[in-house]
Amino acid sequence: MEYRRLGKSGVKTSEIALGSWLTYGTVTEREQAAACVRQAYELGVNHFDCANVYGSTPHAAEEVLGAALKEYPRESYILTTKAFWPAGKGVNDRGLSRKHIFQEVEKSLRALDVEYVDIFYCHRYDPDTDLEETLRAVDDLISQGKVVYGGISEWPADKIAAGVRIQRELGFHKLAASQPVYNMLNRYIESAVVPISEEAGIGQVVFSPLAQGILTGKYRKGQPLPEGSRADTDSVKQFIERQLTDPVLDKVAQLQRIAKESDLSVAQLALAWVLRLPGISAALIGASRPEQVVENAKASGVKLGDDVLSSIEEVLKA
To answer: Which of the ends of the chain has fewer CB neighbours closer than 10 A, N or C?
Structure first.
């Protein structure tokens, strides 16, 4: 496993990080989740991502992840959580108000059974809360020692720029991490999010680098969804089926040929492609089986040659 700085901060993250979205606390059993965490840790993964709303109920995935990490020294890994989405039925049980952020961080710390999280992400931009209020709440949590670094997830580039400006003007702790979606099929961050973040010292910890499994090659044109696959679960079936078009699957087939020529799986090729950008600090993978962690971790350190990158670009732009 190789490591990168999280933006311009001093902390280093494994290039491959393990996420909990749609897995822990839901379709993945607790023991299997623990096995995936154990496998990742043994391979050198030091970055474990979660959120207050992951799982079948609020904080369910955090409880599973916290229990799985309990056997390891707390200082040996990076642990994250998030808040924004509704976590209850109350009118204030959502968004990025100071009230909601404070109450959710406290609940997350209890669920994870830790004294602090390394990264707290504002899980989306909240148009209903003054940006200064949100950033001041995060800054106060950092000062209290409950959060080490602040982050944002899927914020528009102009909102990232506005947040950076406010932090500089008011002397708040700098944002360290951005968590957007990024993969071969969704490259929107390249035009503005990455450049703005790099200038501000914010590292990208990208989610869905395999496009919800589409870039693993397990979905094939004209064939039914593999039984037991993520696409065959009710929570994401419609979302993935919309993306499983013939043109997309044709591209995946071409990418598989490029991967085979490079002695890689298409998933490893896709992860190495994501990590080609210096502004990417880590790629978040999901796993329901330890062997998936093993295969995806092999992408760390893979350097794709210019000829391979050119071939990939031809496929993606076709």
So the answer is: C
pTM above 0.85, yes or no: yes
Selecting among 54, 149, 182, 219, the annotated active-site residue is 54
CA distance 75 to 147: 13
Give the model confidence (pLDDT) of 189-243 as tens digits: 999 999 999 999 999 999 999 999 999 998 877 777 776 655 555 556 666 767 8
Does the annotation count 116 as an active-site position? no
Residues 6 or more apart in contact with residue 262 via CB below 8 angstroms: 269, 304, 308
CA dihedral 10, 16, 21, 23 (to 10 degrees): -140
Contact 14/282 with Cβ under 8 angstroms?
yes
Hey, what are 153's tokens?
A: 């997830």
DSSP state of 178: E
What is the C-alpha separation between 3 and 184, in angstroms, rounded? 22
